Amino acid sequence: MSRSSVAGMIELEGLTKRYGEKVAVNNLSFTVRPGIVTGFLGPNGAGKSTTMRMILGLDHPTAGDVRIDGKHYHQLKDPLTYIGALLEAKAWHGGRSAYNHLLCLAQSNGIPRRRVGEVLETVGLTAVAKKKTKGFSMGMGQRLGIAAALLGDPRILMFDEPVNGLDPEGIHWIRTLMKSLAAQGRTVFVSSHLMSEMALTAEHLVVIGQGRLLADTSMADFIARNSRSYVRVRSPHRERLLDVLHQAGVVAVESGEGVLEVDGGKAEHVGELAAQHGLTLHELSPQQASLEEAFMRLTAESVEYHAHSGTSAAPPPPQQQQWGDGWKRG
Amino acid sequence: MAVPQVVRSEWTKIRSVASTVWTLSLVVVVTVALGMLISALSKNEFDSMNAQDRAEFDPTFISFAGMSLGQLAMIVFGVLVVSNEYSTGMIRTSLAAVPQRGSFLFSKIAVATALALLVGLVTSFAAFFLGQAMLGDHRAEIGDPGVLRAVLGGGLYMTLIAMFSMGVAAMLRSPMLSLGILMPFFFLISNILGNVDATKKVGRFLPDQAGSRIMQVVPPLDDDTPYGPWGGLGIMGLWVLAALIGGYVLLRKRDA
In chain B, which residues have their Cβ closer than 8 Å to the Cβ of A94? Predict the structure, then answer.
């Protein structure tokens, strides 16, 4: 068996899925590596679930290729022992018990029966193992889906929007689980439409919008490149303050309602300059532009590029807007 | 993918849902009970029959009269076994576990068919013996010429009905759509097409019309059916084959 020598990689090459005129996934190429959590980020409708279904061989690509450890999904012997997946929607028969659901999956891949009890224990469903799954809450359903993913003790785990519909305790549990799976050297590929969620769990980031690859970068890089820090200043002597800052070689821009934004500046420096010139300040606060904002800028550009409408896309929404509100429509 | 693993998995699936038990129980109960009732009624009517009706009197076939209704439960069984995968979303989990779609579909069909054959044979023998008990003096014996063939054939007929339904459900995916087409077709339309003079020549090549020929021991006097009992079952088998191939081809091609 070559299993021990292979790395647990998912490799996409020019992966494309077209539904008639609509391009759901457009020429995606990237590699998911073991040992870290890779976040797969994009607005709803960006093509994340379609991509994951193609990785599992459920949907046929229109063009391109996706391989698991160098093989097509259908070439894997007992695929659940290579890659375990939690799919977005509930994907089991509600009239079957959790135990029997996992048992039939285990049998189909030659996985020993004791694993069923083990994974039920891991996800905390032992007490309801013999109950029909149609009575399960959303959170219990997610746990059952994760139990199925863990069943074959696979090198690769793929979770599609795992925190959807979970309570805070469940969300915390999934984050911890994903990190510990990655720490064991496994490949963890997790999709989300929430940047804030990814920032907490993922070390690497693959961003798509309108089916196109927008970024394939480490989380640290993404943060360094995209989180602009600036100082927010309000003063009744705005014009004079601008002059003072200009003379000191500090770049400041007006952002309306008497507010100045000093890019890359230190709050101490601005405060000292103002004091030297006897200028009153009403506000002096260091700010960090959110990752959400950066992400929204990224995906807004993809919308503009895709539409070919000639009109420029709307500017990114103002700062403190709730993350994700604008693009849940997709 | 090792096929025995998939067969075991499909057996776990089929035995762990309630619909299997209630559809197959209905097959037995409805077929046998209705067969006994009609056998009892036929016995009482025999004395008032004319000579031709008495010559065509087929006690074996009469005891299978309940199959016209019992087969509907068999259709529900066949449809649900396959379409449950789609209506519940289980199909994505199933195909991720068994990406060889042929192995998946035919293991499922093999398990369900074996169960249908078992239940079909039990039903057929029970309907025969209990029906004959109701017929009293006019009964047939299992050792009479053609009778054992008819009783075994009854079990095979029920099995093929289930298989045909599985093929249709694999093509259509939706349980409601599959049942909405199969139930009226086998309960009404096929009977009409097979008995109205204008459509008879075509109608008797329909799966149930052709297949049920094997349950007749005494053919009608003016019988001009162009096939025999096994020929009829063969025609039904071709329908089943076509439905299964259609289901397989579509399953292979489609996104799950």
Answer: 88
Inter-chain touch B95–A58, beta carbons under 8 Å = yes
Structure confidence at residue A301 as a pLDDT band (50, 70, 90)? low
- At which residue do the structure tokens 């970068």 appear? A217
- Work out the pLDDT band at A303, boundaries 50, 70, 90: low
CA distance to partner chain A, nearest, from residue B182 (Å): 23
Are the beta carbons of A58 and A83 closer than 8 angstroms?
no
What is the overall mean pLDDT for chain A?
86
Nearest 5 degrees, angle CA B99-CA B104-CA B110? 165
List alpha helices for A109-167, DSSP H.
Answer: 114-123, 138-150
- Tell me how far apart the alpha carbons of residues A103 and A115 are, in angstroms, rounded to a whole number: 9
Question: Across chain B, how many H-helices and E-strands are there?
Answer: 13, 0
User: Would you call B96 and A56 a contact, using CB atoms and an 8 Å cutoff?
Assistant: yes
Reference B109, options B247, B254, B253, B210; nearest CA is: B247
Which structure tokens are listed for B219? 């053919």
Cβ distance A91 to B90 less than 8 Å, yes or no, reads: yes
Q: How far is CA B58 from CA A268, A270, B139, B221, B226, in A?
A: 106, 107, 9, 12, 20
What pTM was estimated for this model as a whole?
Answer: 0.85
- Kindly indicate whether the ipTM for this predicted assembly is greater than 0.90, answering yes or no: yes
Provide residues of B within 8 Å CB-CB of chain A.
1-2, 5-6, 8-10, 12-13, 16-19, 84-85, 88-100, 255-256
Interface of A with B (CB under 8 A): 53, 56-60, 73-74, 76-80, 85, 87, 89-97, 100, 103-105, 107-110, 148
Q: What is the pLDDT of residues A265-300, one digit of tens each?
A: 688 888 998 899 998 999 998 887 777 777 887 887
Higher pLDDT, B52 or B243: B243
The 10s digit of each residue's pLDDT in B202-227 is 899 999 999 999 999 998 878 888 99
Do the Cβ atoms of A212 and A306 come closer than 8 Å? yes
pLDDT for position B241: 98
| Contacts with A260 (C-beta within 8 Å, 6 or more apart), sequence order | A232, A233, A234, A235, A238, A241, A242, A245, A252, A253, A254
